[in-house]
Protein 1
Amino acid sequence: MTRKEALIKKVHGLLERERRINLHRHPVRIDIAEGAVVLEGEVEDIAAKKLALELAAGVTDVRGVIDRLHVAPAERKGDGAIRVALCESLLRAPELRNCALRFRAKDRVETLRAMQHDSAGEIEVAIDEGVVTLEGTVISLSHKRIAGVLAWWAPGCRDVVNSIDVAPPEEDNDDEIIDALQLVFEMDPMLRGEAILARAANYVVTLEGQVHTEAQRRRAELDAWALFAVDKVVNRIEVGAP
């Protein structure tokens, strides 16, 4: 067995043992290119994507990971439909009401909300085959994270590349993660009014509390995974009547 074959086998074994990654339903192609692991394919959700990348990056003698993984959407939609849904969400979000918003398609840029004197920044959206790219500059990490979560929520979204800058630069920490997550829970129509307690340590989020349904429990976890810079989510939420 060559070194390349051994590395591929090791990565495959790690992915296969992770319960959140279903290689039978969603096969992942694994390759080695110049010492880096290449992961390609569609996985079930953002949790599976982030876990796969983390597991591959932890393999000894691997120089890095090339991410070509996308999330299989619940419903396939064209880029135009994704754009309409996402831009409407960005325009409605109270936390982003002072952000200018643009949409870029090839060589055309359309302004949906112009910059104002009290602007909290500007966000530019581009979509290519279900992959949403966010660029621009905002005044806080919470703005950046909320825009990213709204992109993940857009029906048909397969991936989010959140390249929004924060200016002036803001030091990130666990408190910033929790502040943004609480805002997301308040925005999420599936979770409003639910008693969910979140805490973070070294970018690992732990969720506790109680919700009414298993769908709400899963939704809360995926909301946490969707936050920029979250490395892991421990879901201890219970399901039952309050």
Protein 2
Amino acid sequence: MSEIPVIIVGAAGRMGRMLVNAVHAEPGERLAGAVEVSGHPSLGQDAGLIAGVGDLGVPLTDDLFALLAPGRVLVDFTMPAATVQNVRACAAAGTAVVAGTTGLSAEQREEVKVMSSKVPVVLAPNMSMGVNLLFHLVKEAARILGPGFDIEVVEAHHRMKKDAPSGTALRLAEVAAEGRGWSIKETARYCREGIIGERPEREIGIQTLRGGDIVGDHTVLFAGPGERVEISHQAHSRETFARGAARAVKWVAKMPPGMYDMQDVLGLR
């Protein structure tokens, strides 16, 4: 079987370099393109050398459109507006997409969904295989424990993270709401301060911590009468996200157009 050609956007950044490493290490995949913004100081340099895996013969370029083609897969962990623009370009070119960008608005997610009618798109706020198992367990716990257990989602990330709450925390709240048959829009509580009164029966708290170099911690607490259950995941390295993305590349390359996430990739549906 021929290797899957992979294009990485933001390839000179911290996450981009890890993605280059993951794709290079993944059997059946090869780096076919590496993209950075116009004016980036590393343009023209070899993406493999930048990532520390040796010369791969793939120079960093700012011309994404020249790399897009059917049979290729784009990996994008950039910013919401850039990701939407890149998915639009991929839809026109017939290039599949794996996107781990967080912070997309509801409107941006909907635009990506519309474009996924032309190419397969894996869009996931967290590519970690462990976190995606967590999504599955939290939904089941919410369903089994029932409304007698209050739900709180607590997330912690490094001080440089730009969006809050994290996309992973929001998704954890969503799957907990799905397990209860609730609407997340009606039950999410992002802040508490002052005299707030008794907790409503239908409420999912989402709390955010920021500090230091925390890669990513997520805990979902189910607090009931006389007991509580906590389900947690700690990411020790961003490499977990890169390895998950490499696994998603192999999966999405075989799929028809559509909107997918890591639950689909891991067969948890």
